[in-house]
Amino acid sequence: MLHVARGRSNARIARETGVHLDTVRCWRVRFAEQRLAGPSDRKRPAARPRLLRCSPPRSRPWPCQMPTETGVPLARWSCPELAREAMQRGIATFMSASTVRR
Prior knowledge:
- By secondary structure, this protein is an all-alpha fold.
- 40% of the residues lie in helices and 0% in strands.
- It has 2 domains: 2-37, no CATH class; 62-101, no CATH class.
- The protein contains 5 helices and no strands.
């Protein structure tokens, strides 16, 4: 807010502070609405876990097995198929193919 008091533009404040222009805009709006309480950091909700707790595998983990050994009619696993299978088995509430790939 000291930059604002000196008459600097949002773009200049963003450059000098190393933050995104949208962040500067957000700070200014919050300051205008809430004065000194506005720019303070806000509480954020914790991310809900997407992976569910599960028991350890009894033998070889299913992604390491051939799909036909686990009852899936595929020649080999792909990332989208592994993600879909994890959700069907209740291991994750949601899992994307890019998460499996990583």
